[in-house]
Amino acid sequence: MEAYTYSNIFDTKGIEYIVIIFFLLLLIPFWIIVNRKSETVQQMKQAIKTLTATVLNIPRGLFYSPNHAWLYLEKNGQVRIGIDDFLVKVLGEIEVKLLKNEGEKIKKGDVIAVVEQNGKQLKLHSPVSGQIAGINADILEDAATLLADPYGKGWMFTVEPDNWKAETVGFLMGNEVKPWVDRELRRLKDFLNVSFSRHTDPSMAVVFQEGGELQMNPLTELDAEVWDDFQNEFME
Question: How many CA atoms within 13 Å lie on the side-chain side of 86?
Answer without folding.
Answer: 24
